[in-house]
Amino acid sequence: MRMRAIRLWRTISLSKTVTRVSSRGFKVYTRTGDKGESSLFNGHRAPKTSLYFEALGNADELNSFVGMARCHCVENKNLEELVVMLEEIQSRLLDVGSHIATPKLSSDIDRVRVVAFDQSHVDQLEKWIDQMDQKLPQLQNFILPGGGQAASTLHVARSVARRTERSVIPLVQQEDADATILQYLNRLSDFLFMAARTASLACGEGDAVYQKARD
Known about the structure:
By secondary structure, the protein is mainly α. The strands form 3 sheets. It has a two-stranded antiparallel sheet with strand order 1-2. A two-stranded antiparallel sheet has the order 3-4. It has 7 helices and 6 strands.
């Protein structure tokens, strides 16, 4: 029963809980957040301006940009492997949200155990980064975000990943979230940088190199 509840929670917005049911299924609106508060996965309510919802919102935004990038990558047959990677990452970002929404200091042990984030997900990103690195030209200059729609969107996702990482730091420092979440987000921004270069190369664009200002 607990696992069914978790799967259901992951299909809706990270900052909402379903409380109203109709004959057509679950309603999107709940009215429970109209006063600026919402429920975490452990049932506790907190202001939407809290650290938890700041991190959840950033993770949600990051997932949206990764999804947009994936849609652009689908259009290029040379990026089929990258599409699979991005889809996997989107699922893991929902896991990140589940973990953030279950603060360790105020949640029971069973619930914390269910949303634990495994180190293997970090290892997987590192493996993918190494694979892409072997296929890309050696980086010798600073590069500019760009390189086509797929690459540009991946660069946006990279910058949002950095913001998401920064917003999770306080939660890890106060021991409400595991350090593996922080490691994953840190590695994810590196992955997205490499993915952007990969997409740019696949689209025939190549890296746009930084140029010093002329005198």
